[in-house]
Structure formats: structure tokens, C-alpha cells
Design brief:
polysaccharide degradation, metal ion binding, binds calcium ion, metal-binding, alpha/beta, 2 domains, Carboxylic ester hydrolase, binds 2-acetamido-2-deoxy-beta-D-glucopyranose, carbohydrate metabolism
């Protein structure tokens, strides 16, 4: 214990520059020599500022943790693929590296994460995942760009990013972390599986793991729900199976009428959606298992819900199938079926599936994995996170608490928001670092686990207004004891 405390104290000691950081920062432009890499720009940000961004996803970003050194670089991952990335290197550095993930099929640098991580005194690196923009089109006929997306970008980001951190501060990071949600969650598991030495600790939210089936599920759901073909010019969906958005409020109210009180509190939150045996009166689409919409209480106005129930074939699945699986620009999705899903499995572009339970190498390096999933997530069902948990624990034939913990968050939507206290330091939207301590913050909880051996028993969510709720780790359950929710075996 004494040893652990000393270790924590050593890691937490703040880095102090021997020379003026601004001079050191600006010199990086000409002094950094890294494999396959060109330094595109270097800037020293002196006060909290709004800065312009790289790539086409957004035009500006906040820098609250200034002063920091901002390094923009490109690394060729092969002769036909490259990664654009930024490192944000705060003057006040606690000796920790943080790699960031991406979302959907994008190519967007996570500027919120860069700001968030640097404000907690990490040296942070985020990349464009090997292509620019939100569409999957850059993947078309570019197998190496697909490889970047599927597994390589996150590794190269870590390898080159750590070298930049090392060069700037003149000392390597003591510990390395990863933070990502959705596709970023998939990238985090992929890193632990394929590059177990890259990170000492990994936080993933709502991970898009078992990717091929997730894409297949979105496609099948669209099909069941009478979604129009992506290329249709119709403005009104006339399929008899289509549920117009207005009706989702009615459906949600009925789901809540039946299931809200199962947890003992009528608050709009269904704590354990799997307990909700919703009786829909015959509309078969409500009964499809694990569809993430039913039994959660989500409505069409929940963020990301319209991507699933809005009436169009899922653009994620459409882009993935056309550009990564079939290698075509046009495809008619009218008769999307399990045969399409089987093809996803067969091609498995870049090994994107990310559904293996063999985390033994990561475990044996004493890596720690903290994952969370909102139970009102309409885009990726929280059941997917239970599935991967069970897969890992079966594969390794061991209880996972020693190195892998899953927190299910009642009421939370996809990665953030929803109902109730869902701010956990997940870094997705500005302000999620509601309370800066490891009891309330998944990233800081992971730091304590990695550096101090203090495994998080619970995570406390905040709503920013003083209301909190204790969130439980699977397979424990969140149970109302008459006063508040507590965790029970
Ligand atoms: C990266 O690739 C581009 C295009 O092939 C090439 O022009 C550039 O010199 C390469 N950069 C490095 C550092 O290898
Ligand atoms: C640099 O490029 C070569 C050739 O494409 C590749 O084999 C090597 O892995 C790359 N190194 C890094 C750090 O990406
Ligand atoms: C939390 O906030 C305090 C006070 O602002 C600060 O001193 C401390 O460094 C912060 N902790 C972390 C891990 O950033
Ligand atoms: C469906 O697609 C049409 C045509 O691209 C678009 O105008 C509409 O906003 C989309 N609806 C949703 C819910 O995304
Ligand atoms: C599309 O191209 C990839 C290689 O990038 C290949 O593996 C796959 O089989 C191709 N798809 C079809 C349907 O031919
Ligand atoms: C979809 O299936 C129907 C019924 O079998 C068939 O008439 C139609 O041509 C198919 N459409 C496409 C685009 O394959
Ligand atoms: C806190 O309460 C205020 C006033 O009721 C409200 O405007 C704000 O949105 C709330 N913030 C959160 C995070 O719920
Ligand atoms: C509920 O749990 C809390 C925290 O453990 C405890 O303080 C409280 O007494 C419990 N309430 C009841 C009615 O058991
Ligand atoms: Ca409830």
C-alpha cells in the first residue's frame, strides 16, 4: 500500500519545463523527425481561446486548458493511406498520454476530447481515423483506408503521438490511456485486442463492437420498419410498416406506462430494460430482440433515434455496404436481408468485426478496461455491451472484475444525455466533467485503477444540478431500496 501511494504521488507530480515552453513548442516544427510523418503546423496557445480546426467536420474548437502546445501532423500509414492528427500538450502535464477515438464512419478529429483531456492535464492526441469527413465514401476502393478505420489509425496515433510527447517534454509518458465512445469504443477494444501494449488503461462508451452484425441489425431494422431506399426521392414514407415520428411519443408513453415503475420509481427511466416485457398489441417490430428502441423508452426526438427510425435506410449501413463491402457507389437496399449480413461477415473489411473475447494479452500486461453504456441508447443497444462482457468472461474462463468493468447507465442515451444523472466525465460534450474526482469521472476512475490499484466499485453520475445516482457494474443490478438506488449482486 505504501508502495502504491508513492507510485501515485510520483505520477501525479506536475512536469516543469527547463526552458520556456513557447520556444520549445515552436521549435518542434523543425526539430521533430518522425517516421513517415510531416509536421504540418505548430502553435503555442496562450490563453483560453477559440481556434480553427483541421479537416472538414467542424470549423472551430475551444481551448480551455491553455497554455498548451498544439501540433498538427500527418503520418503516412502506407503508400496509399495517411492519418491527420493533432497533439495538444499542456504546460501543466501530469505525465499521462491520452489517445482519442472517433465516431460513426467518420474521419473527424475529436476536438472536444482534445480540450477535455488537456484540461485534466493529459497530453492528448486525436486523429481523423485515416480519412476526412463524416461520410464513408473515402473508404471506396481504398483497402488501406479501410484498414486505418478498422484497426490501424488508433495504433499509429498512439505510436507517433507518444514520440511527440516524449520529444516535447523530454521524458516519456508514465502511463497511457484511451478514451472513446461508439466507434471510439470499438477502437478501444480493437486496441486492447491487437495492440495490447499501446494503453495501460482504456475507457470505452457504447462501443460499436461486433460491427458487422451491428451494421446488419441497423439494416434489418430499417427493412422491418419499412424504411425507404436511400436513393428514394420520396419525401413521405408511405410504407404500411412505417411508424411516423409523431407516433413514437405515444409508443414511448405506453412503454413507460407498462415498465417505468418496475424499478420502483416513476421517473421516466427504465432501470433494467431487459425486465420490460412490453406488450405491443401485435406490432411485430416492437418485439424484435435487442433493437435498442423498445423497452428503453426512447422517442424519435432522442439524439440518434431518427437515424434508426426516421424512415430512411440507415446511412451508416448503406455507406458501409456500398463503399467497404460491395465496392460500388449505387445499391438498391429495398430487399436488404440476412444475405447482406452474411456478406458483411464474409468480407469483414479490415477485420472490423471487433468481437473477440481474448483479452489475455492486455490482461497479462495489467491493463485496465472501463466501459459504460446508456440503457436508453437508441443507436447501439446496451445489450451489445453485455454480450461482449459475457464473451470475454467465457473466453478467459474467469470473472472480469480484476481488469474489465462494465457500467450500465440507466436513462442515458448514446454516449451522453438522456434522462437522469448521466454526466460521468465521458468527455463527449463540453461540461461532462461535472465533478472532477474519480468517484464521478470514468477517466479519473481509470487513472486511480491503473496507477493506484483502486478499482472503481461504482460510478456516480451527476446531472449538473446537484442530483446524483450511483451506477452499478454488470452483472450487479441497480435496485431502489426505498430511498435511493443501490447496487446489489
Ligand atoms: C507521404 O506520402 C505522400 C504521398 O505519397 C508523399 O508525398 C510524402 O512525401 C510522404 N511523406 C513522408 C513523410 O513519407
Ligand atoms: C511507415 O511506413 C512504412 C511503409 O508504408 C510502414 O511499413 C511502417 O509501418 C510505417 N511506420 C509507422 C510508424 O506507421
Ligand atoms: C481537479 O481540480 C482541482 C482544482 O481545480 C485541480 O487542482 C486538480 O488538478 C484537478 N484534478 C485533475 C485530475 O485534473
Ligand atoms: C431522409 O432522407 C431525406 C432525403 O435525403 C432527407 O431529406 C430527410 O431529412 C431524411 N430523414 C431523416 C429522418 O434523416
Ligand atoms: C471489395 O473489395 C475488397 C478488397 O478491398 C474485397 O475483399 C471484397 O471481396 C470486395 N467485395 C466484393 C463483393 O467483391
Ligand atoms: C425486391 O423483391 C421483390 C419481390 O421479390 C422484387 O420484385 C424486386 O425486384 C426486388 N427489388 C430489388 C431492388 O431487388
Ligand atoms: C439545471 O437547471 C437549470 C434551471 O432549471 C436548467 O436550465 C439546466 O438545463 C439544468 N442543467 C442540467 C445539466 O440539467
Ligand atoms: C438505502 O441505502 C442507503 C445507502 O446504502 C442507506 O443509507 C439507506 O439507509 C438505505 N435505505 C433503506 C430504507 O434501507
Ligand atoms: Ca423508473
Amino acid at each position: 500500500m505504501v508502495y502504491l501511494l508513492l507510485l501515485v504521488a510520483a505520477l501525479l507530480s506536475t512536469f516543469v519545463f527547463a526552458t520556456d515552453p513557447q520556444t520549445k513548442c515552436l521549435a518542434l516544427k523543425n526539430t521533430l523527425r518522425l517516421e513517415n510523418t510531416t509536421i504540418l503546423d505548430v502553435a503555442y496557445i496562450n490563453a483560453p481561446a477559440i481556434v480553427s480546426t483541421a479537416g472538414s467536420c467542424q470549423s472551430s474548437a475551444s481551448v480551455t486548458a491553455a497554455p498548451l502546445c498544439r501540433v498538427y501532423f500527418v503520418t503516412n500509414t502506407t503508400s496509399t493511406s495517411a492519418l491527420h492528427a493533432e497533439a495538444w500538450l499542456p504546460d501543466t502535464w501530469y505525465g499521462r498520454f491520452l489517445g482519442l477515438g472517433n465516431g460513426g464512419l467518420n474521419g473527424c478529429l475529436d476536438y472536444v476530447g482534445l480540450d477535455y483531456g488537456s484540461s485534466l492535464h493529459f497530453a492528448v492526441v486525436g486523429s481523423d481515423n485515416g480519412h476526412d469527413g463524416s461520410s464513408g465514401l473515402p473508404l471506396l476502393n481504398h483497402p488501406e483506408v479501410i484498414n486505418d478505420y478498422a484497426f490501424r489509425a488508433i495504433h499509429v496515433e498512439a505510436v507517433i503521438g507518444k514520440q511527440i510527447v516524449d520529444a516535447y517534454y523530454g521524458t516519456p509518458s508514465a502511463k497511457s490511456y484511451f478514451l472513446g465512445c461508439s466507434t471510439g469504443g470499438r477502437q478501444g477494444l480493437q486496441a486492447a485486442l491487437k495492440f495490447p501494449a499501446d494503453f495501460d488503461g482504456i475507457v470505452t462508451g457504447a462501443p460499436a463492437v461486433d460491427w458487422n452484425h451491428l451494421m446488419g441489425w441497423l439494416g434489418m431494422l430499417a427493412h422491418y420498419m419499412g424504411a425507404t431506399n436511400l436513393d428514394s426521392t420520396a419525401t413521405v414514407n408511405t410504407s404500411p410498416k412505417f411508424i411516423p415520428p409523431e407516433l413514437w411519443g405515444v409508443i414511448s408513453a405506453e412503454i413507460l406506462r407498462q415498465c417505468d415503475f418496475l424499478d420502483g420509481v416513476r421517473d421516466g427511466i427504465i432501470t433494467e430494460p431487459d425486465d420490460c416485457d412490453f406488450r405491443s398489441g401485435g406490432a411485430s417490430v416492437y418485439r424484435k430482440p435487442d433493437n435498442g428502441l423498445f423497452d428503453t423508452g426512447a422517442t424519435s426526438s432522442d439524439p440518434f433515434a431518427s437515424a434508426v427510425i426516421g424512415g430512411n435506410f440507415s446511412s451508416l449501413t448503406a455507406d458501409w455496404e456500398r463503399y467497404a463491402v460491395l465496392n460500388v457507389t449505387e445499391y438498391d437496399f429495398t430487399n436488404f436481408s440476412v444475405q447482406d449480413v452474411a456478406l458483411f461477415d464474409q468480407v469483414n473489411p479490415g477485420g472490423v468485426a471487433t468481437f473477440s473475447g481474448d483479452l489475455s494479452a492486455f490482461r497479462d500486461r495489467r491493463g485496465k478496461f472501463l466501459t459504460y453504456h446508456g440503457r436508453r441508447d437508441p443507436l447501439i443497444s446496451s445489450t451489445n455491451s453485455k454480450r461482449v462482457y459475457d464473451l470475454i468472461s467465457q473466453t478467459l474462463s474467469q470473472p472480469l472484475d480484476d481488469f474489465y468493468r462494465l457500467f450500465l447507465i440507466p436513462g442515458m442515451g448514446h454516449c451522453f444525455g438522456g434522462l437522469g444523472p448521466t454526466l460521468l466525465g465521458q468527455g463527449i460534450v463540453p461540461g461532462t466533467n461535472a465533478v472532477n474526482d474519480s468517484a464521478h469521472n470514468v477517466l479519473l476512475a481509470l487513472v486511480d485503477w491503473v496507477e493506484g490499484g483502486l478499482a472503481p466499485a461504482t460510478i456516480i453520475g451527476s446531472d449538473g444540478n446537484g442530483t446524483e445516482r450511483t451506477h452499478c457494474r454488470y452483472p450487479m443490478r441497480s435496485v431502489f431500496n426505498g430511498t435511493l438506488f443501490v447496487c446489489r449482486e
